[in-house]
Amino acid sequence: MSSQPTPATLPRQAFAPSVSRTLATAARVLRQLRHDPRSIALMLLVPCVMLFLLRFVFDGSPGTFDSIGASLLGIFPLITMFLVTSIATLRERTSGTLERLLAMPLGKADLIAGYALAFGLVAVIQSLLATGLALWGLGLDIVGSPWLLLLVALLDALLGTALGLFVSAFAASEFQAVQFMPAVIFPQLLLCGLFAPRDTMQPVLEAISDVLPMSYAVDAMSEVLRHPDVTGDFVRDVLVVAVCALVVLALGAATLRRRTA
C-alpha cells in the first residue's frame, strides 16, 4: 500500500501548522543559533552598539537623541532580524537541510512558524536589551510607558523576521540575500518619516510611505515619545505592523521552495 499522503492531507500539512512540529523546528533553530556566536552577537549586540554610538554622536544635543532615538530603537532590530533571518533560512535551503525536512511530515507552515517562533524569542531578548539600554543606560526621555516602547520594538523585530523569511525564497545565494536589503529596507528607511515628516514629501512619495510598514512603526514610536497614554493612532500603528508581519509570514510559507534554483 502506498504511503504517499492523500490530497486531503496535503493542504492541512502545507497551511495548518502543527504545534508539535512547530516547536520541534523552533528548538532545532535555537540549537543551531547557540553554536553561531556571530549571529547571536549581530542580533543582540549590534542594535545596542548602534544606539550607544548614536547617543554620543548627539552628545551636545540630547534633545536630538530623544527625538530620533525612539524611532531607531525600532528600526535597528528590524534591520538586524531581516538580515540574519534571510541568510539563515537561505542557508537551510542551499545546504539541502530544507529539502530533507520537507520530505518528512513537515509542512511549509510548520517550518515558517518554527523559524518565526525561534527568532521571535531572540527578538524578545533583543528588544529587552535595546529598550533597557536606551531608557536606563542612555537616558532616552519619553512621555509614554516604557512597556509600549518595548512592544513596538518587539513588533518591529518580528516584522524584520517575517520580511527575512519572505525574501529568502527569492535569493539563490547569501550574497543575493544581502542584496535584498537595499531593495526592501532602504526605501522604507528613507520614506518612514525619520529624516523628514511624511506629509512634507512629494505626494507620490507620501502615498508610497503610507503603505510601508516601517512608516507605522516610526509613527508608533513617536506616539509613545509624545503622549502619556495609549492613543487611537498608536493602536492603529501597532495593528498595522502586526498585520503586516502576519501577512508576510503567510506569503513566506506560500513561496518557500525546497531548494535554490
Automatic annotation (TrEMBL):
<feature type="transmembrane region" description="Helical">
    <location>
        <begin position="147"/>
        <end position="170"/>
    </location>
</feature>
<dbReference type="InterPro" id="IPR000412">
    <property type="entry name" value="ABC_2_transport"/>
</dbReference>
<dbReference type="Pfam" id="PF01061">
    <property type="entry name" value="ABC2_membrane"/>
</dbReference>
<dbReference type="InterPro" id="IPR051449">
    <property type="entry name" value="ABC-2_transporter_component"/>
</dbReference>
<feature type="transmembrane region" description="Helical">
    <location>
        <begin position="70"/>
        <end position="90"/>
    </location>
</feature>
<feature type="transmembrane region" description="Helical">
    <location>
        <begin position="111"/>
        <end position="135"/>
    </location>
</feature>
<feature type="transmembrane region" description="Helical">
    <location>
        <begin position="40"/>
        <end position="58"/>
    </location>
</feature>
<feature type="transmembrane region" description="Helical">
    <location>
        <begin position="177"/>
        <end position="196"/>
    </location>
</feature>
<keyword id="KW-0472">Membrane</keyword>
<dbReference type="InterPro" id="IPR013525">
    <property type="entry name" value="ABC2_TM"/>
</dbReference>
<keyword id="KW-1133">Transmembrane helix</keyword>
<keyword id="KW-0812">Transmembrane</keyword>
<dbReference type="InterPro" id="IPR047817">
    <property type="entry name" value="ABC2_TM_bact-type"/>
</dbReference>
<protein>
    <recommendedName>
        <fullName>Transport permease protein</fullName>
    </recommendedName>
</protein>
<keyword id="KW-0813">Transport</keyword>
<feature type="transmembrane region" description="Helical">
    <location>
        <begin position="238"/>
        <end position="256"/>
    </location>
</feature>
<keyword id="KW-1003">Cell membrane</keyword>
<comment type="similarity">
    <text>Belongs to the ABC-2 integral membrane protein family.</text>
</comment>
<keyword id="KW-0046">Antibiotic resistance</keyword>
<feature type="domain" description="ABC transmembrane type-2">
    <location>
        <begin position="34"/>
        <end position="259"/>
    </location>
</feature>
